[in-house]
Structures are given as C-alpha cells and as structure tokens.
Amino acid sequence: QVQFVESGGGLVQPGGSLRLSCVASGFSFSSYSLSWFRQAPGKERELVASISNIISRTYSVDSVKGRFTISRDNAKNTVYLQMNSLKPEDTAVYFCTRGWKHPIDSWGQGTQVTVSS
Question: What is the pLDDT of residues 4-46, one digit of tens each?
Fold first, then answer.
C-alpha cells in the first residue's frame, strides 16, 4: 500500500523558513519521481516542485523559484521541501506524492503551512 506521511508545517512569520519532510512507503522509492503540491482554502491543488528519480533533476513553479528547494534522500525514503522567504500567499496544506509534475496516485494527509504576522 502506497503511503505518504508529511510533516514540518506550522505557523511562521513572513520572511521566515520551514522545512517539510515526507516519508514514503509501499513502493520502490528510488524508482519514482516525486512532487510537492499545495492547496489553499477555496483553491484547487497545485504543483509546487518535482524531483526526478535519476540524477535528481528538479522543477519548481515560477511563484516559488529561488525560494523553495526540493530534495530527496533515497536511503531514508524521504523527500524534502526547504521553504525560505515565505509569503502569506504560500499559506496552504502541502502534500507529497509520486510523479513528475503530475500526481500518479495516493496522497498523504498533508501538513498545514500558515504564513502570518
């Protein structure tokens, strides 16, 4: 059974940083690209960043480029999202899943990120 468990969210002031983690299980982690998505209240879920399984090529959407960094540790079955210079518009529930830019299947419960003063 494919599972994702996200953690690391919280309340942070504008300009602050957070590091999200996502532990995956139930599949061959190193064989898949992985992505972070987010969903703000009243909005559709949207892609934030992806990382490939080979050479860890990365992609991020324009709104987070230069601020967010996706990385992975195949030995720990974990994908990370380092978020710097956070803005109120980054407030959302963040999810990880398999796939390059598009989700393949399962979602975790997500982790809430709130950026507010």
Answer: 999 999 999 999 999 999 999 999 999 999 999 999 999 999 9
CA atoms within 13 A on the CB side of 102: 1
Q: Checking DSSP bridges between strand 111-115 and strand 58-60, what pairing results, if any?
A: unpaired
The answer to whether the CB of 96 falls within 8 A of the CB of 50 is: no
Residue 97: alpha-carbon gap to chain centroid: 8
| CA 14/CA 34 separation, integer angstroms | 27
35 sits in which H/E element: strand 34-39
Is residue 7 within 8 Å of residue 19, measured between CB atoms? no
- What is the C-alpha to C-alpha distance for residues 37 and 115, in angstroms, rounded to an integer? 17
pLDDT at 66: 96
Give the up-direction half-sphere exposure of residue 46: CA atoms within 13 A in the CB hemisphere: 16
